[in-house]
TrEMBL record:
SUPFAM superfamilies: F-box domain, RNI-like. This is F-box domain-containing protein. Residues 1-48 form the F-box domain. InterPro entries: F-box-like_dom_sf, F-box_dom, LRR_dom_sf. It comes from the Eukaryota.
Length: 483
Protein backbone atom coordinates (compact mmCIF):
# COMPACT_ATOMS: atom_id res chain seq x y z
CA UNK A 1 0.00 0.00 0.00
CA UNK A 2 1.06 3.56 -0.61
CA UNK A 3 0.96 4.36 3.11
CA UNK A 4 3.74 1.85 3.71
CA UNK A 5 6.17 3.97 1.70
CA UNK A 6 8.76 6.09 3.45
CA UNK A 7 7.65 9.62 4.34
CA UNK A 8 10.29 11.13 2.04
CA UNK A 9 8.93 9.17 -0.93
CA UNK A 10 5.33 10.00 -0.04
CA UNK A 11 6.26 13.66 0.12
CA UNK A 12 7.78 13.51 -3.37
CA UNK A 13 4.68 11.78 -4.75
CA UNK A 14 2.10 14.19 -3.30
CA UNK A 15 4.22 17.21 -4.29
CA UNK A 16 3.08 16.59 -7.88
CA UNK A 17 -0.58 17.14 -6.95
CA UNK A 18 -2.47 20.36 -7.61
CA UNK A 19 -3.50 22.45 -4.59
CA UNK A 20 -7.16 21.35 -4.67
CA UNK A 21 -6.11 17.70 -4.79
CA UNK A 22 -3.72 18.28 -1.90
CA UNK A 23 -6.54 19.76 0.18
CA UNK A 24 -8.74 16.72 -0.49
CA UNK A 25 -5.88 14.34 0.30
CA UNK A 26 -5.54 15.85 3.77
CA UNK A 27 -8.90 14.39 4.77
CA UNK A 28 -8.19 10.79 3.70
CA UNK A 29 -6.26 9.76 6.81
CA UNK A 30 -4.15 11.16 9.62
CA UNK A 31 -0.86 10.00 8.10
CA UNK A 32 -1.47 11.70 4.73
CA UNK A 33 -2.70 14.79 6.54
CA UNK A 34 0.68 14.88 8.30
CA UNK A 35 2.51 14.57 4.96
CA UNK A 36 0.34 16.98 2.95
CA UNK A 37 -0.26 19.83 5.42
CA UNK A 38 3.18 21.45 4.92
CA UNK A 39 2.55 21.57 1.15
CA UNK A 40 -0.96 23.02 1.51
CA UNK A 41 0.24 25.78 3.82
CA UNK A 42 3.44 26.60 1.94
CA UNK A 43 1.72 29.45 0.07
CA UNK A 44 -1.12 31.24 1.90
CA UNK A 45 -3.32 34.20 0.97
CA UNK A 46 -5.39 36.45 3.25
CA UNK A 47 -8.39 38.29 1.82
CA UNK A 48 -9.68 40.62 4.51
CA UNK A 49 -11.79 42.81 2.19
CA UNK A 50 -13.59 39.93 0.48
CA UNK A 51 -17.11 39.25 1.80
CA UNK A 52 -16.88 35.50 1.18
CA UNK A 53 -13.26 34.95 2.22
CA UNK A 54 -13.14 37.23 5.26
CA UNK A 55 -14.34 34.57 7.77
CA UNK A 56 -11.85 32.04 6.38
CA UNK A 57 -9.00 34.54 6.65
CA UNK A 58 -9.92 35.43 10.22
CA UNK A 59 -10.09 31.74 11.17
CA UNK A 60 -6.68 31.18 9.62
CA UNK A 61 -5.19 34.07 11.60
CA UNK A 62 -6.73 32.69 14.77
CA UNK A 63 -5.26 29.22 14.17
CA UNK A 64 -1.83 30.70 13.41
CA UNK A 65 -1.91 32.57 16.68
CA UNK A 66 -3.09 29.61 18.78
CA UNK A 67 0.34 27.91 18.98
CA UNK A 68 -1.48 24.55 19.30
CA UNK A 69 0.10 22.75 16.33
CA UNK A 70 2.10 25.75 15.14
CA UNK A 71 0.84 25.56 11.51
CA UNK A 72 2.58 28.87 10.84
CA UNK A 73 5.93 27.10 10.64
CA UNK A 74 4.94 25.65 7.25
CA UNK A 75 4.17 28.99 5.58
CA UNK A 76 6.93 30.20 3.27
CA UNK A 77 4.97 32.75 1.24
CA UNK A 78 2.18 35.02 2.51
CA UNK A 79 0.04 37.22 0.28
CA UNK A 80 -2.36 39.80 1.73
CA UNK A 81 -4.84 40.80 -0.97
CA UNK A 82 -6.42 43.79 0.75
CA UNK A 83 -6.05 46.74 3.03
CA UNK A 84 -6.23 46.28 6.80
CA UNK A 85 -10.02 46.35 6.86
CA UNK A 86 -13.04 44.05 7.01
CA UNK A 87 -15.27 43.99 3.89
CA UNK A 88 -16.87 47.34 3.17
CA UNK A 89 -20.40 45.96 3.23
CA UNK A 90 -20.11 44.63 6.75
CA UNK A 91 -20.86 46.64 9.88
CA UNK A 92 -22.23 49.74 8.13
CA UNK A 93 -25.82 49.51 9.36
CA UNK A 94 -27.29 51.95 11.89
CA UNK A 95 -26.86 49.70 14.92
CA UNK A 96 -23.38 48.69 13.79
CA UNK A 97 -22.42 52.35 13.69
CA UNK A 98 -23.97 53.02 17.10
CA UNK A 99 -22.12 50.07 18.60
CA UNK A 100 -18.94 50.99 16.71
CA UNK A 101 -18.69 47.35 15.63
CA UNK A 102 -16.55 48.04 12.57
CA UNK A 103 -13.85 49.66 14.69
CA UNK A 104 -13.91 46.69 17.06
CA UNK A 105 -13.58 44.20 14.20
CA UNK A 106 -10.70 46.20 12.73
CA UNK A 107 -9.03 46.11 16.13
CA UNK A 108 -9.57 42.34 16.23
CA UNK A 109 -7.82 42.00 12.84
CA UNK A 110 -4.82 43.88 14.22
CA UNK A 111 -4.75 41.70 17.34
CA UNK A 112 -4.89 38.44 15.38
CA UNK A 113 -2.22 39.60 12.94
CA UNK A 114 0.12 40.54 15.77
CA UNK A 115 -0.50 37.17 17.45
CA UNK A 116 -0.05 35.20 14.21
CA UNK A 117 3.08 36.79 12.73
CA UNK A 118 5.62 35.43 15.27
CA UNK A 119 4.61 31.87 14.30
CA UNK A 120 5.74 32.42 10.68
CA UNK A 121 9.28 31.35 11.48
CA UNK A 122 9.98 30.02 7.96
CA UNK A 123 8.37 32.87 6.02
CA UNK A 124 10.57 33.89 3.08
CA UNK A 125 8.34 36.18 1.02
CA UNK A 126 5.64 38.71 1.90
CA UNK A 127 3.31 40.18 -0.72
CA UNK A 128 0.80 43.00 -0.28
CA UNK A 129 -1.67 43.50 -3.12
CA UNK A 130 -3.26 46.90 -2.49
CA UNK A 131 -1.36 47.94 0.62
CA UNK A 132 -3.40 50.53 2.50
CA UNK A 133 -3.68 51.55 6.12
CA UNK A 134 -7.44 51.14 6.03
CA UNK A 135 -9.03 51.34 9.46
CA UNK A 136 -5.79 50.62 11.28
CA UNK A 137 -4.17 53.35 13.28
CA UNK A 138 -0.65 54.35 12.31
CA UNK A 139 0.63 52.66 15.45
CA UNK A 140 -1.14 49.39 14.56
CA UNK A 141 0.27 49.30 11.02
CA UNK A 142 3.72 50.14 12.34
CA UNK A 143 3.48 47.32 14.89
CA UNK A 144 2.41 44.81 12.23
CA UNK A 145 5.24 45.75 9.87
CA UNK A 146 7.75 45.71 12.72
CA UNK A 147 6.68 42.16 13.58
CA UNK A 148 7.09 41.07 9.96
CA UNK A 149 10.56 42.61 9.82
CA UNK A 150 11.69 40.47 12.77
CA UNK A 151 11.05 37.17 10.97
CA UNK A 152 14.45 35.50 10.56
CA UNK A 153 14.13 34.18 7.00
CA UNK A 154 12.12 36.96 5.35
CA UNK A 155 14.11 38.07 2.30
CA UNK A 156 11.46 39.05 -0.26
CA UNK A 157 8.81 41.75 -0.07
CA UNK A 158 6.43 42.79 -2.83
CA UNK A 159 4.25 45.83 -2.17
CA UNK A 160 1.60 47.14 -4.54
CA UNK A 161 0.40 50.38 -2.97
CA UNK A 162 -3.30 51.24 -2.97
CA UNK A 163 -3.10 55.03 -2.81
CA UNK A 164 -0.54 57.80 -2.98
CA UNK A 165 -0.17 57.83 0.81
CA UNK A 166 3.09 56.24 1.90
CA UNK A 167 4.47 56.28 5.40
CA UNK A 168 8.17 55.53 5.20
CA UNK A 169 8.17 54.41 8.82
CA UNK A 170 5.97 51.42 7.94
CA UNK A 171 8.81 49.91 5.89
CA UNK A 172 11.86 51.31 7.66
CA UNK A 173 12.03 48.27 9.95
CA UNK A 174 12.90 45.88 7.12
CA UNK A 175 16.54 44.99 6.57
CA UNK A 176 18.74 42.44 4.82
CA UNK A 177 16.23 41.95 2.02
CA UNK A 178 17.30 40.19 -1.17
CA UNK A 179 14.30 40.82 -3.41
CA UNK A 180 12.28 44.07 -3.33
CA UNK A 181 9.24 44.99 -5.44
CA UNK A 182 7.37 48.29 -5.05
CA UNK A 183 4.57 49.53 -7.26
CA UNK A 184 2.66 52.76 -6.68
CA UNK A 185 2.85 56.47 -6.01
CA UNK A 186 6.06 57.99 -4.68
CA UNK A 187 7.95 54.74 -4.20
CA UNK A 188 11.11 56.83 -3.77
CA UNK A 189 9.76 57.81 -0.34
CA UNK A 190 10.51 54.25 0.73
CA UNK A 191 13.06 52.57 -1.51
CA UNK A 192 16.34 54.42 -0.73
CA UNK A 193 16.30 53.49 2.97
CA UNK A 194 15.36 49.88 2.17
CA UNK A 195 18.29 49.55 -0.20
CA UNK A 196 20.64 51.14 2.32
CA UNK A 197 19.67 48.51 4.91
CA UNK A 198 19.90 45.58 2.45
CA UNK A 199 23.56 45.06 1.48
CA UNK A 200 22.91 41.76 -0.33
CA UNK A 201 19.98 42.82 -2.49
CA UNK A 202 20.02 41.06 -5.86
CA UNK A 203 16.59 41.89 -7.35
CA UNK A 204 14.88 45.29 -7.51
CA UNK A 205 11.56 45.87 -9.29
CA UNK A 206 10.08 49.39 -9.20
CA UNK A 207 7.03 51.00 -10.80
CA UNK A 208 6.61 54.66 -9.88
CA UNK A 209 3.68 57.01 -10.34
CA UNK A 210 3.86 60.72 -9.56
CA UNK A 211 1.34 63.54 -9.44
CA UNK A 212 0.78 65.20 -12.82
CA UNK A 213 2.56 68.38 -11.72
CA UNK A 214 5.42 66.63 -9.91
CA UNK A 215 8.99 66.41 -11.14
CA UNK A 216 9.86 62.82 -12.00
CA UNK A 217 12.54 61.32 -9.75
CA UNK A 218 15.84 60.27 -11.27
CA UNK A 219 16.87 56.64 -11.36
CA UNK A 220 19.97 57.56 -9.36
CA UNK A 221 17.70 58.64 -6.46
CA UNK A 222 17.06 54.95 -5.82
CA UNK A 223 20.53 54.76 -4.26
CA UNK A 224 20.47 58.19 -2.61
CA UNK A 225 20.63 56.90 1.00
CA UNK A 226 23.87 54.98 0.49
CA UNK A 227 27.09 56.38 1.94
CA UNK A 228 29.62 57.71 -0.60
CA UNK A 229 31.53 55.02 -2.54
CA UNK A 230 29.03 52.34 -1.43
CA UNK A 231 27.45 50.14 -4.11
CA UNK A 232 24.53 47.77 -4.33
CA UNK A 233 25.40 45.61 -7.37
CA UNK A 234 21.95 44.20 -8.20
CA UNK A 235 21.62 41.28 -10.62
CA UNK A 236 18.04 41.91 -11.72
CA UNK A 237 16.71 45.45 -12.17
CA UNK A 238 13.29 46.56 -13.42
CA UNK A 239 12.44 50.26 -13.69
CA UNK A 240 9.06 51.34 -15.01
CA UNK A 241 6.78 54.36 -14.97
CA UNK A 242 7.62 57.93 -14.10
CA UNK A 243 11.38 58.06 -13.78
CA UNK A 244 13.95 60.07 -15.66
CA UNK A 245 17.51 59.12 -16.51
CA UNK A 246 19.67 62.10 -17.51
CA UNK A 247 22.85 61.22 -19.44
CA UNK A 248 24.90 62.77 -16.64
CA UNK A 249 23.63 60.11 -14.18
CA UNK A 250 24.86 57.10 -16.14
CA UNK A 251 28.40 57.22 -14.72
CA UNK A 252 26.97 57.22 -11.18
CA UNK A 253 24.81 54.16 -11.91
CA UNK A 254 27.39 51.90 -13.54
CA UNK A 255 29.02 50.67 -10.26
CA UNK A 256 25.58 49.44 -9.15
CA UNK A 257 25.19 47.51 -12.42
CA UNK A 258 28.45 45.55 -12.39
CA UNK A 259 26.72 42.21 -11.77
CA UNK A 260 23.57 42.98 -13.74
CA UNK A 261 22.18 40.04 -15.73
CA UNK A 262 18.60 41.20 -16.30
CA UNK A 263 17.34 44.71 -17.11
CA UNK A 264 13.81 45.88 -17.79
CA UNK A 265 13.73 49.64 -18.33
CA UNK A 266 10.34 50.95 -19.39
CA UNK A 267 10.69 54.71 -19.04
CA UNK A 268 10.22 57.54 -21.50
CA UNK A 269 13.83 58.49 -22.15
CA UNK A 270 16.79 56.14 -21.96
CA UNK A 271 19.96 57.92 -23.06
CA UNK A 272 22.34 56.30 -25.53
CA UNK A 273 25.07 56.78 -22.93
CA UNK A 274 23.61 53.92 -20.85
CA UNK A 275 24.11 51.32 -23.58
CA UNK A 276 27.50 52.72 -24.52
CA UNK A 277 28.63 52.50 -20.88
CA UNK A 278 27.37 48.92 -20.51
CA UNK A 279 29.28 47.92 -23.64
CA UNK A 280 32.44 49.74 -22.57
CA UNK A 281 32.35 48.18 -19.10
CA UNK A 282 31.70 44.68 -20.51
CA UNK A 283 28.36 44.36 -18.72
CA UNK A 284 26.53 41.94 -21.00
CA UNK A 285 22.90 41.21 -20.13
CA UNK A 286 21.11 37.89 -20.62
CA UNK A 287 17.59 39.32 -20.23
CA UNK A 288 16.55 42.70 -21.67
CA UNK A 289 13.22 44.50 -22.04
CA UNK A 290 12.95 48.05 -23.43
CA UNK A 291 10.32 50.37 -24.86
CA UNK A 292 12.75 52.84 -26.42
CA UNK A 293 15.16 51.86 -29.19
CA UNK A 294 18.16 53.88 -30.35
CA UNK A 295 21.36 53.26 -32.30
CA UNK A 296 23.44 52.71 -29.17
CA UNK A 297 21.06 49.96 -27.99
CA UNK A 298 21.26 48.14 -31.33
CA UNK A 299 25.05 48.45 -31.29
CA UNK A 300 25.15 47.11 -27.72
CA UNK A 301 22.93 44.13 -28.56
CA UNK A 302 25.19 43.26 -31.47
CA UNK A 303 28.42 43.53 -29.49
CA UNK A 304 28.14 40.13 -27.79
CA UNK A 305 26.25 36.83 -27.80
CA UNK A 306 24.23 35.01 -25.16
CA UNK A 307 20.90 36.85 -24.79
CA UNK A 308 18.18 34.48 -23.56
CA UNK A 309 15.12 36.76 -23.38
CA UNK A 310 14.64 39.96 -25.36
CA UNK A 311 11.61 42.25 -25.50
CA UNK A 312 11.57 45.22 -27.88
CA UNK A 313 8.25 47.05 -27.66
CA UNK A 314 8.88 50.59 -28.93
CA UNK A 315 6.06 52.96 -28.00
CA UNK A 316 6.95 55.30 -30.88
CA UNK A 317 7.50 54.52 -34.58
CA UNK A 318 11.12 53.50 -35.10
CA UNK A 319 13.39 53.60 -38.13
CA UNK A 320 13.36 50.79 -40.69
CA UNK A 321 17.15 51.02 -40.93
CA UNK A 322 17.54 50.05 -37.26
CA UNK A 323 15.06 47.21 -37.72
CA UNK A 324 16.94 45.82 -40.71
CA UNK A 325 20.18 46.01 -38.77
CA UNK A 326 18.59 44.14 -35.86
CA UNK A 327 17.29 41.28 -38.00
CA UNK A 328 20.41 40.96 -40.17
CA UNK A 329 23.31 41.51 -37.77
CA UNK A 330 22.07 41.49 -34.15
CA UNK A 331 19.71 38.53 -33.81
CA UNK A 332 22.15 36.11 -35.54
CA UNK A 333 24.53 36.68 -32.60
CA UNK A 334 22.01 35.15 -30.19
CA UNK A 335 20.36 32.31 -32.16
CA UNK A 336 21.90 29.60 -29.95
CA UNK A 337 20.71 31.04 -26.64
CA UNK A 338 17.46 32.90 -27.41
CA UNK A 339 14.49 31.38 -25.56
CA UNK A 340 11.96 34.23 -25.44
CA UNK A 341 11.67 36.94 -28.07
CA UNK A 342 9.09 39.73 -28.22
CA UNK A 343 9.35 42.17 -31.13
CA UNK A 344 6.25 44.31 -30.85
CA UNK A 345 6.27 47.60 -32.77
CA UNK A 346 3.21 49.81 -32.70
CA UNK A 347 3.11 50.37 -36.45
CA UNK A 348 3.85 48.65 -39.76
CA UNK A 349 7.40 48.57 -41.08
CA UNK A 350 10.59 46.54 -40.99
CA UNK A 351 10.21 45.68 -37.31
CA UNK A 352 7.26 43.52 -38.38
CA UNK A 353 7.86 39.91 -39.39
CA UNK A 354 9.36 39.67 -42.88
CA UNK A 355 11.23 37.17 -45.04
CA UNK A 356 14.67 38.03 -43.69
CA UNK A 357 13.49 37.97 -40.09
CA UNK A 358 11.83 34.59 -40.59
CA UNK A 359 15.04 33.08 -41.99
CA UNK A 360 16.95 34.14 -38.87
CA UNK A 361 14.19 33.06 -36.49
CA UNK A 362 14.26 29.51 -37.85
CA UNK A 363 17.87 29.31 -36.63
CA UNK A 364 16.75 29.99 -33.03
CA UNK A 365 16.29 26.30 -32.20
CA UNK A 366 15.75 26.85 -28.47
CA UNK A 367 12.85 29.30 -28.71
CA UNK A 368 10.14 28.70 -26.11
CA UNK A 369 8.08 31.90 -26.49
CA UNK A 370 7.85 34.03 -29.64
CA UNK A 371 5.74 37.16 -30.13
CA UNK A 372 5.83 38.96 -33.47
CA UNK A 373 3.81 41.57 -35.35
CA UNK A 374 2.69 41.30 -38.97
CA UNK A 375 1.50 44.12 -41.20
CA UNK A 376 -1.20 44.29 -43.84
CA UNK A 377 1.05 44.12 -46.92
CA UNK A 378 2.60 40.80 -45.92
CA UNK A 379 -0.66 39.29 -44.67
CA UNK A 380 -2.47 40.14 -47.91
CA UNK A 381 -0.09 38.10 -50.10
CA UNK A 382 -2.18 35.45 -51.86
CA UNK A 383 -1.56 31.73 -51.56
CA UNK A 384 1.08 29.95 -49.46
CA UNK A 385 3.60 32.78 -49.83
CA UNK A 386 1.87 34.99 -47.24
CA UNK A 387 3.90 35.49 -44.10
CA UNK A 388 1.46 33.65 -41.79
CA UNK A 389 1.48 30.39 -43.73
CA UNK A 390 5.25 30.57 -44.15
CA UNK A 391 5.66 31.09 -40.40
CA UNK A 392 3.48 28.07 -39.60
CA UNK A 393 5.49 25.97 -42.04
CA UNK A 394 8.56 26.73 -39.91
CA UNK A 395 7.17 25.22 -36.70
CA UNK A 396 8.91 21.84 -36.97
CA UNK A 397 12.46 23.03 -36.10
CA UNK A 398 11.15 24.77 -32.96
CA UNK A 399 10.93 21.68 -30.78
CA UNK A 400 10.74 23.69 -27.56
CA UNK A 401 8.27 26.38 -28.66
CA UNK A 402 5.33 26.58 -26.23
CA UNK A 403 3.70 29.89 -27.13
CA UNK A 404 3.52 31.75 -30.46
CA UNK A 405 1.75 35.12 -30.65
CA UNK A 406 1.03 36.59 -34.09
CA UNK A 407 -0.47 40.04 -33.67
CA UNK A 408 -1.44 42.75 -36.15
CA UNK A 409 0.33 46.04 -36.74
CA UNK A 410 -1.79 49.11 -36.15
CA UNK A 411 -1.96 52.44 -37.83
CA UNK A 412 -1.37 55.31 -35.33
CA UNK A 413 -4.65 56.83 -36.52
CA UNK A 414 -6.69 53.68 -35.85
CA UNK A 415 -8.93 55.14 -33.14
CA UNK A 416 -12.69 55.32 -33.47
CA UNK A 417 -15.14 55.03 -36.34
CA UNK A 418 -14.29 53.47 -39.67
CA UNK A 419 -10.56 53.95 -39.05
CA UNK A 420 -10.69 50.69 -37.08
CA UNK A 421 -11.80 48.66 -40.10
CA UNK A 422 -8.36 48.04 -41.65
CA UNK A 423 -6.95 46.64 -38.38
CA UNK A 424 -10.11 44.63 -37.84
CA UNK A 425 -9.68 43.11 -41.28
CA UNK A 426 -6.01 42.26 -40.61
CA UNK A 427 -6.98 40.49 -37.38
CA UNK A 428 -9.60 38.47 -39.20
CA UNK A 429 -7.21 37.67 -42.02
CA UNK A 430 -4.54 36.40 -39.62
CA UNK A 431 -7.00 34.18 -37.78
CA UNK A 432 -8.43 32.86 -41.06
CA UNK A 433 -4.98 31.91 -42.37
CA UNK A 434 -4.16 30.09 -39.13
CA UNK A 435 -7.47 28.19 -39.17
CA UNK A 436 -7.00 27.20 -42.83
CA UNK A 437 -3.49 25.87 -42.27
CA UNK A 438 -3.17 22.07 -42.48
CA UNK A 439 -0.30 19.70 -41.85
CA UNK A 440 0.44 15.99 -41.60
CA UNK A 441 2.38 14.17 -38.89
CA UNK A 442 3.01 17.16 -36.59
CA UNK A 443 5.79 16.87 -34.05
CA UNK A 444 5.07 16.50 -30.33
CA UNK A 445 6.18 20.10 -29.89
CA UNK A 446 3.66 21.31 -32.46
CA UNK A 447 0.86 19.49 -30.64
CA UNK A 448 1.80 21.24 -27.37
CA UNK A 449 2.02 24.67 -29.00
CA UNK A 450 -0.55 27.43 -28.36
CA UNK A 451 -0.87 30.01 -31.16
CA UNK A 452 -2.43 33.33 -30.11
CA UNK A 453 -3.72 36.21 -32.22
CA UNK A 454 -5.64 39.39 -31.45
CA UNK A 455 -8.71 37.24 -31.93
CA UNK A 456 -8.19 33.85 -30.27
CA UNK A 457 -5.86 31.15 -29.03
CA UNK A 458 -5.63 27.96 -31.08
CA UNK A 459 -4.04 24.51 -30.88
CA UNK A 460 -3.43 21.77 -33.44
CA UNK A 461 -6.07 19.02 -33.53
CA UNK A 462 -6.79 16.14 -35.88
CA UNK A 463 -9.44 16.98 -38.45
CA UNK A 464 -12.60 14.90 -38.37
CA UNK A 465 -12.69 12.06 -40.90
CA UNK A 466 -9.08 12.77 -41.91
CA UNK A 467 -6.74 10.59 -39.86
CA UNK A 468 -3.43 12.14 -40.88
CA UNK A 469 -4.46 15.78 -41.29
CA UNK A 470 -4.23 18.36 -38.49
CA UNK A 471 -5.40 21.98 -38.35
CA UNK A 472 -5.64 24.74 -35.75
CA UNK A 473 -8.79 24.99 -33.64
CA UNK A 474 -9.59 28.04 -31.52
CA UNK A 475 -9.87 27.00 -27.87
CA UNK A 476 -10.24 30.50 -26.41
CA UNK A 477 -11.71 33.58 -28.06
CA UNK A 478 -11.55 37.17 -26.84
CA UNK A 479 -13.19 38.98 -29.73
CA UNK A 480 -10.92 41.27 -31.57
CA UNK A 481 -8.71 42.13 -28.60
CA UNK A 482 -6.71 45.25 -29.20
CA UNK A 483 -7.97 45.71 -32.75
Amino acid sequence: MILSLANELLHRIVSWLELDDLKRTRFTCKHLNYIVTPLVLEHVALNLNDEMLFPVSMSLLQSLGSRKDNPGRYIKSLRINSSFDPPYGRYIGFWDKVANRRARVTSLIATRLLEAIPSLVCLRSLHFLGFHQGGFSTLEVDAVMRQFSKLPHLSTISIILHTDTVHESFFSHFHNLRDITFNGHRVLDVIPSLIASSPDIYRLDLVNFSASNAVFPSVRDIFSSLPPATCRPVEHLSIEGQFMLPPSDVTFLIPHLRLLASLQIHIANVPEQLWTALRTENIFLHHISVVMINDALVEYLGSYSGIMTLSLTPTQPDSDARAQRFWKTVLPKHVRTMKELFVHPNTAGEWCLNDGALRILTQCKNLEILRVIVDQDRVDVKGPDNIITRLLECLRPWEHLQSLSILSAHNPNDFGGSALLPSYRICQRIQKLITEYQCCRPTEGMLRLAVATDYAESVLVRRELEIDVFSFLATQSWGIGSC
